[in-house]
Structure formats: structure tokens, C-alpha cells
Amino acid sequence: xxxxxxxxxxxxxxxxxxxxxxxxxxxxxxxxxxxxxxxxxxxxxxxxxxxxxxxxxxxxxxxxxxxxxxxxxxxxxxxxxxxxxxxxxxxxxxxxxxxxxxxxxxxxxxxxxxxxxxxxxxxxxxxxxxxxxxxxxxxxxxxxxxxxxxxxxxxxxxxxxxxxxxxxxxxxxxxxxxxxxxxxxxxxxxxxxxxxxxxxxxxxxxxxxxxxxxxxxxxxxxxxxxxxxx
Length: 230
What we know:
With about 230 residues, this protein is α+β, with helices and mostly antiparallel strands. Helices cover about 35% and strands about 25% of the residues.
């Protein structure tokens, strides 16, 4: 079998040099110079490593970092607003779920249940009434940045009455407890939640959870443009 010869780099220059073996030494040196010049132009060494590749300069890197910082600063307020919005909705969903849980437990266990709201510490307990009372969920905290209270100018009845100062009010005998009975009825009242201005300044979004005498639990939205609860 005939051995195949490996391809020779710079075949053109090699062919010319081979044809010029019997030429004068001056001509050979000229072609050798042309070969070296060609290698330098394409930016290669004998190992095949390119020498013409470039990276980022320090100035270019600083420009990229500066652009990223500017975009981050511009997006930061909108990001905070979004975070506070989702946390408020999450807090409302959590309280609604626990109110519905208390109602279901009251019916299924034939016992009175209540939720005691600690408005000073933004927590609440789920309690089964009896002798003695049994706390089934203790010190459930509101999400960070969400507190009891409201920026609304009237309560959820939309009759001009001011909302409770601490954010929770149930009737009759106003107190900070939502009560549920085995016959599916409940104490009428509302729980108001708002965004903490100390953590999210400028965001005055507020929501409310209402509990009807029939035991129905609803979420209400404060419409600042109409100054009414929807």
C-alpha cells in the first residue's frame, strides 16, 4: 500500500522553493522571506496559536459595569413596589384561608373557633374554645413588610364611618377576634392590612378581609380614586 504523505503547510511557497533549489542563494532567501512574512500576516506561530485575538480593555469593562448599575438603580423602585404588592396579596390570602379553616373546623368539630389578632406584633392565633381553650395555631406572623391597619378613609361599609385604628374590628362587642360557630354563622367584622411605609415608602396599597354574619369571607380592595371599597 502506498503511504500517503502528510499535507505540507505553505504548499505554494514550498513548491517554489523546491523548484528553486538550483537557483542562486539570493533567490532562495527572497522566497524564505516571503514565507515568513505570510506567517506574520495571518498571525500564527508554528504551534497554531493565534496571536491577533484581543480581550476587553479596562475602560470597556468599566463602561459595561456602569451601564448595569444605572439600569439596576432605575429598576429598583419598581422592583420594591412589585415585591410589596405580592406580599400584601400573600398576607390577605393567608388570613382568608385561616378564617375559612376556622369556620370548617367549627362546623366539623361542633365547637366554637376564633382567631385572635395581635395587631401590635402583626400576628394571630387560631383557637378552639373550650375549658380550657386550645391554641391550634400559635403566633402566625404576617409576611415581612405587611402590617394591620389601613390608609382608607372609611370602613368597608362605605358609609363614611372611620375604620378601626388598629386595623381589626368585629361586632357586636368590638374586639380583635373573629369568631365562628358550629351553625356556620360568624361575628360580623373586618381585618385591614396595609404595606409598611417604613419598609416600602410611598406605597399606600391596602386590602381588607370581611366576615359576614353568615360566615362568608371576602376580600375587599380600596379604590383610592373613588375613595370607596370595591
